Batch of 3 targets.
Target 1
Amino acid sequence: MSGRTHLGMPAFPEAATSATRDARLRRNLRHATGTIRAKRAEAVAELPDWAELRAAGAAIKDRTLRHLDHYLEQLEEAVTAAGGTVHWAADAAEANRIVTELVRATGETEVVKVKSMATQEIGLNAALEKAGIRAYETDLAELIVQLGDDLPSHILVPAIHRNREEIRDVFRGRMSRWGRPAPEGLTDDPAELAEAARLHLREKFLRAKVGVSGANFMVAETGTLVVVESEGNGRMCLTLPETLISVVGIEKVVPTWRDLEVFLQLLPRSSTAERMNPYTSMWTGTTDSETADGPRDFHLVLLDNGRTDALADTVGRQALRCIRCSACLNVCPVYERAGGHAYGSAYPGPIGAILTPQLRGTTTELDASLPYASSLCGACYEVCPVAIDIPQVLVYLRERVAEGGEVTVRGQRTTIRPARGHAAERAAMRAARWALDHPGALRAGQRLAARTRRLHPRRLPGPGRAWTASRDLPAVPAESFRDWWRRTRDDRAEGDRR
Amino acid sequence: MSSRETVLGRVRRALADVPRTEGPDDVPVPRRYEHTHMPTEGPGATGAPVDLLAENLIDYRAVVHRADADGLPTLLCRLLAERGSTEVLVPPGLPPWWLAAADPVRIHDRAASTPDELDTVDSVVTGCAVAIAETGTIVLDGSPDQGRRRITLIPDHHVCVVRVPGQVVASVPEALERLDPSRPLTWISGPSATSDIELSRVEGVHGPRTLEVVLLTE
Ligand code: SF4
């Protein structure tokens, strides 16, 4: 039941076209992204030093990435000293194997899960299912997705493509197969739906012996893991089970405890547009049995799965700064039209368009088409709390798809051939055309990016020229972050804080 | 080769462009952001952190009360009575006088207590480690007056006593300075909430659906 994966997805343009035809999906998405967008702007405007926080956030991540080996070793030492066990997984299969074995060792056949992009990325639920272990998603949206045998479509609100009537139907029809059935006469009132989920999941929390989570941050200096959430299901999974297994991408490490002061301000405002999310849990290893507070066994699985390949690319590396806030999805005119599923991975929207092709390579039609799933309007860069220049990376990856070049695949340097004339290029071209053929999408994006300047050439220089010669490149708002930062700071100096 | 060596080896090869002489601290991190957004002294003073804390807690739908030492026992008694609680979870180091006037049966959290047993308790009363005015956040660190993380999670009604002004800081950076990372920490900003259904905010999915904060004047 939880076996759906993104494997075998059609290339972006096909998936996007069918999503665009789905009027209800588009309505749901437009409403949702529009709402979050406006709220986020307000939450960000409350902090006069947003640009400085953003600069610090980007710099901390850059420091971490440039010395990732150092920080990973430091983290391992700190977690181990605090009573945790650290495992290393080079790829998805290895991570799944490690988690499966750890669960087996407990003798349990059920685990409760906190929403985690990393476990979605590696298809952990399906792998556990194969081993006879059932993984229960406990985040409300993930529950909706799991019960509906569906795939998440948004980083933060994975069931954003479903409206309340659909959710009621999923609960009524499916809850009983997974445990406590939906209450009689359940309506589509959101409070009632949430209550149904509370009751359904509580029975799982109270008996669960094993919890599986991801983490938003790992502090190298102290060995502390941080999970940021809203509902309390995270707290349940991190606190009640006897064994906790956290699967975390290696890029999630931050150097010091103090660094959290930057990210705990950037993340909630960027993602849920709140001053602070309802719950944040931090734990360091295990506590001894006298004071036992939380799991007695803690396992941290450090996941590579293509991250070191992205790290090896000096342009694409910045994608690893991402703190998964989803702000870039909510401002993206292409995401708003195409929906999250069209991106064919756990990471939809602009971040997915640059991250997925780096994690998985560009050998499939889908992955090769992703860098073209953008109008390059630049809104994603404007809102990104860690200043990832997504348009820059998109253009760069396009060039690589079209022209081929040096890449790192599973740690090995290889040269990929140009996709010209290849199915991948055709898929890519269709995706580009799809993005450009939606003037509504373009306009919305351009409005958002009104402040940015056109510094980017209309034709790519160097080897990209051949590709762009016959195709006009949409303007990239390429004001450098430093310029932008200096300008906003100067504005402030003149007393204008907005 | 172990996977540890594989991954670390890949990381090192990936970073071939980083000069060997560069240390982690050589990568500059500009920290020009504010340490706090609410100056409490000087010309830009914006009032007391305690008032901002109260305002932000209310904004996030927590219920805020104020009391002094004389009024606290009766206030807590009233809050539990209004809730109709017959049992209240009590952390081991909660000052006994806080609940001197309260009727409900005290339930103590023992290591052997199962989550199911705790699930039948109506309310929990705790202290806190620190409260953050700018974000309306209270932080628990598992000290004896707060107890294990699970006791503030399972009951549906959480009453948290914040000693003011001593436990209140203005900002997130100030809070982190005071906290000990080796303790299990829970940051709470308002009651449990979700916006997963058409983005309409619904209080209370798994954590306590009612959060009452008592600002206790020291
Ligand atoms: S790329 Fe930036 S805006 Fe997008 S999810 Fe990541 S951190 Fe957020």
Target 2
Amino acid sequence: MRKALFLFLILTLALFVFARDYITIGTTDKIRILDPADCYDYFSSNILQNTMAGLVDYEVGGTEIIPWLAESWNISDDGLVYTFHLRKDAHFMNGHPIDANALKFSFDRVIKLNGDPAFLLSDVIAETRVVDDYTFEVTLQYPFSAFIAVLGYTVAYPVDPAVTPADDFFYDVPIASGPYYIADWERDVQLVLKANPEYFGPKPKTETIVIRFYQNASTLRLALESGEIDVAYRTLDPRDLLILKTDPRYVVYEGQSPAIRELVFNVKMPPYNKVNVRKAIAYAVDRSYIVDDVFAGTVEPLYTLVPIGMWSHLDVMPERNLEKARELLRAEGYSESNPLEIELWYTPSHYGSTEADVVQVLKEAIEETGLVKVDIKYAEWATYIDYFINGYIGAFLLGWYPDYLDPDDYLWPFLSKSGAASMGAFYENALIETMMIQSRAESDVAIRTEINEDVQRVLAIDVPYVPLWQGKQYCVTYPYVKGVVLEPSQIFRYYLLYTEE
Amino acid sequence: MSLKWYILTRILLAIPMFFILLLLIFVVLRILPGDPVLSMLGGKAPMSVIEAKRHELGYDRPLLNQFGDYLLGVLKGDLGRSALTKRPIADEIADKLPATIELTIFGFIIALVIGIFWGAEATKRHGGILDVTGRVYAIFIYSIPVFWLGMLFQWLFGVKLKWLPIAGRISPLIKPEKITGMYIFDALFTWNLPALKDASLHIILPSVALGLIISSVFLRMVRGNMVLMLSQDFVKAARARGIKENSVIYRHALKNAFVPIMTVMGLQFAALMAGAVLTETTFSWPGIGSYLIEKIRYRDFPAIQGTIAVYAIIVVAISIIVDIMNALVDPRVRY
């Protein structure tokens, strides 16, 4: 009896001191679907980026495109035909080869199933062709220089034709082709990744990665503090970040993020159909107030749509100038006794709990002109989209998260006629559209930069948007976790992580 | 009315109630602003894609047709597919429901134990220390939001004392084999001790937070009814016969005070399942409450409809069971 008791005690103790040979990452994000053909949200993509492979990848820590499944590629002189030469040692985890057939099957499947991200391929691809087992060819509908960048996104990751349904999405896990495979997945609870022995690339430094899903930022912080997780990634409250930054028990990593935030005007709706009104508001907004007071310096002010750190970025929007703002408003007939009255819209939960503060700060900054009265309005995200896409609201806050890292993804979706309509701006400018089509067709980066800069200058003249700030990404870990690289591409690579006591 | 007839009418009456509820949720979802397709695609996809999606999901069809299909589906036990994940909703709910039931059961037990014993003890000495503290406790705890109490617990027992895990149902990598989906019972059935220990530790904070809040309702209910019972003649008679006070309280008074308490208990069990929504989000408990919140956020019509239908079935079933139990305990209820 005593022996049994002793054994029991030892076993219980062993349970407590049992060393962990895995890294646990906590997040408030969700996984929606892990089929590349339908996956279009940040975290689902991030899991695919760690478990699958694509034709091309972003270099670690940078934005340059590097070979992955494709060892090299040629682009025809007219910019229409892309020929990819594939590496011959790439296999899915079940042993099936990742060859040109798999790529053709996958690209055609994406276009046929027409899932959420499918338009990224279907809008540009005319035809796909298997030249031989390891040569894959794509013909475009029109020359599109950002196409290679698009291929870096998960929508272009090949799936195994032998086991993937051709006419429906799959809802469980894909056959791995990347550094990890998914060993266990319980939706909204946890995901367990284990090193994929068949992967042709560098071996993961940690055999097992566990991801735990939390419902809100405060639980995520508590989970980190209680030691339940080793890494907190997306998304802690800015105020919590400030506190954790000063706490020596944790390491706070800070990286650039391609996510931008902007104020949108519906240019068809009075009074925003007057360019002077839009410009006056652009002069009145106070970015430093937002950056310092609301975000405690955890974001950067932004003066154009193309984010800081990306080629073609050019500051075009004016610095704050209340005199200029008043001048423009007076020119439109507004005065202290007859102020401009506007509704400023935001959505309370989609962009985090800081949004209500942002809109309050904006209101104060704009009202400081003395010539504008701002009425703050809000709607839940689903309603909000309904409102702006149908043109019911005139001035509202939106955010943009890129699909591919190219200035094109920050200009075309905002300033082309179809893009502006889907943003609720309804902006139309034939000249700017022609310029962007030129830039898309051009493969010379220097020439594209020139055109992109001109496009941004037009943005400052017409002001359908007022870019406000650019986010940063954060990751908080215990000091024993090493290998965290916060990339401009936002790909969080788990295979680089390791622990060191 | 015989008991058989009573039960039958009770069940028949529940059917129109259930369908009115389904119709209500269907209509309300569609009257409220917010387009499910737009929120799914996040305003990023071109118009053509949005239209195609709307057509694919059948949202461009007449409302009456949509409701007809939905009703037919529910009758056949098919709740449709989630617009967001595209998985069958019945499967998704079956994944989540055991977690909520598990949490509710433990929360309920805690509430019952605290509520009944404290309530009964408080009436033993009317105006005594247990009575006064009980009344203060009931008011105090009832006015505390469950998420606030939850966060306090997480901070105290998870971060400061490091005694208990603060979120989730079980630690990664030690999930027990699935039988009921309720980890504690599954771990017991398969005699998986590490999993049993881990799951038990995980359920303490959420179930205590949930149980405490509900216990105040029970406490007041038990106390109120007991005070009433103790002034009845049969209690006086029992005391006069020299029966021990404990026996008077628990075997005579409590038993007779039970009819109204049982009704409230039934309703509270249903309310617990709903109260679990807030508890679940606070403790990242992957139950049906968290599921519903997530689906509402994305305007996932089929999933919201399905979840509410399941809730409705549970609430209706519980109210039927409570009525039947009451009818068994007290035959006067049947007439």
Target 3
Amino acid sequence: MPSANGTREITYVEAVREALTQSMQADERVFLIGEDIGVYGGAFGVSAGMHAQFGGERVIDTPISEAAIVGACVGAALTGMRPVGEIQFMDFITLGMEQLVLQAAKVRFMFGGKATVPMVLRTPGGSGTGAAAQHSESLETWFTHVPGLKVVMPSSPYDAKGLLMAAIQDENPVIFVEHKLLYKISGPVPEEPYTIPLGEPNIVREGKHLTVVATSIMVQRAKQAAEELAKEGIEIEIVDPRTLNPFDDSLMIQSVIKTGKALVVHEAVKTSGYGAELVSRIVESEAFDYLEAPVRRLAGLDIPIPYNRNLEYHAVPQVENIVAEARKLVRGEY
Amino acid sequence: MAKSKNAQTSQAAAKRKLSEKQLHDMLYTMMLIRRFEEKALDLYSLGKVHGTMHLSIGQEATAVGASGALTQQDYLLNTHRGHGHCLAWGSQADLMMAEFMGKETGYCRGRGGSMHIANVDANNLGANGIVAGGLPISVGVGLSIRARNTEQVVMVVFGDGASNEGAFHESINMASIWNLPVIFLCENNQYAMSMPVEKSINIDRISDRAAAYGIEGVTVDGNDPEAVYAAVSSARQRAVAGKGPTLIECNTYRYMGHSKSDRQAYRTRDEVKAWMDKDPIERLVANLGMSKEDKDALFKKAEAEIAKAVEFAEASPEPDVADIMEGVYA
Ligand SMILES: Cc1ncc(C[n+]2csc(CCOP(=O)(O)OP(=O)(O)O)c2C)c(N)n1
């Protein structure tokens, strides 16, 4: 795996597109399918130019039919292809839920392991664009609760490329959640193809006072919070699971053993969110003996995402919330 | 075959005529819708409205024709491109504008925005951010009307693209087997985002799908408010007479992109221009033999009403963050 220290910087959306393009060049079985992904280039521009490059047989525009898009991926994957479906907004996965949960995730198991479903379903999730409650969902935990699905949430351009290439090569159905607000961020990304193994977390920043476990855009917000906190002499360590399921938690547990404190941050609503899983893993492990404070969660409020800008902003964790919560934990003021 | 059924319905429908006064009122509402949306676009460009926005400029005749044929007691379920239907239903421009700006005084207290406006007091059960999201709900409203034994109907509006979702087929089937008073109003503006209707549907008319469910289907000129009015009136009569649902397809066109970020690479300028030449407002002005002065004066009146709506919205307060948790549960 090349290091992230390359010199070329590209955006997250370009990184996703590069992963798709290189995967399609390397493997004829890979094709794209989804709504408005052709001449339109995708609602967020991810597949811009790819229809011209690969043609309508490999970049397939569909009617508005989410259940059929997911099901088509299942069928194609079962019979030797490597489909990459796009669901235009994560919210609309609800319409393809049956095909994903009852078919894609279970076929291999039900068939006694004699078939595989190597498909990827990409989708933009999250809030922050003023799109209101039906276009701003963070539903990742739904999928982590389904054995047979893998769930990936890259937080940087480098991760987006490497994880997507790995997801396409994986033999299992993978839900690949991109964050709408991350599309425009840039970072170093090697030009050559590379993969990041699914399931491996990343220590995004080293620190000694507190472990912050964050997913997707919250990793970026935690990094900004870390800069603020560093000015006060507080050094946080940031762990990004990158793949929510499966997730090798040993790095996270080692980190908590080192710092003695943990804060879990995600955008999805708190109740029954992925944070509950992370906290459980920490307190179930040997890290329990090292804890100097309760493990805390910072998550979205238990409400649908409001349209009003200010309400929307306050509905999910922001940098200042992470700073405040981290400070309290480190100072023992919880 | 469905085609002959369609032809019959169209003829019967075309016979019903509107008075000059009714047509005048419809023209004014169409102008109001046009100016409302143009203003909303300005406000968006100024950053006063955020998120996304789907304009129905060019489709006004369908909205006024359809609402005109229904009563205050009937129900409306609307789409993401629903500003026109909302106004034609009699909703107030000022409360709508306040919602666009995310204000506490807006129809949904700033929580819903342009894609989710409802006016529950007026039986407008809301626009929907989910394509075909309203169709299954219309079945429930139809059941409720029957259970309460009232003379109401429910009209659910959706696009050509929505007719490819499973929800469309499941809902029409149920409404049909149970003979429910539902009017399925398909606004065929020729595109679902970038997908042209010819590429997403392998039949000439969406209304032909009615045949598969044993209900009436009719295609009308959606740029002609009288034709839409006539079709919806007939559908309403059938529904209250216990003769079940109707699928009405209104052929029309959106002049603007799907939403703000649309570069429109999927269609030509000439095509847009050709539809603009069939502009519903200009057409009705001509049919009414209205002078340019009278037309301009009427547009001015609409502009003034919209200006007042914007003033109201601008002066309205933002929602209080302290109330953010409100409204999830009763
Ligand atoms: C279930 C679902 N899939 C996709 C979308 C994204 N989307 C919003 S509007 C739209 C096009 C809808 O086309 P149509 O039904 O013809 O209505 P129109 O926009 O033309 O009025 C799409 C794909 C959505 N909102 N909901």
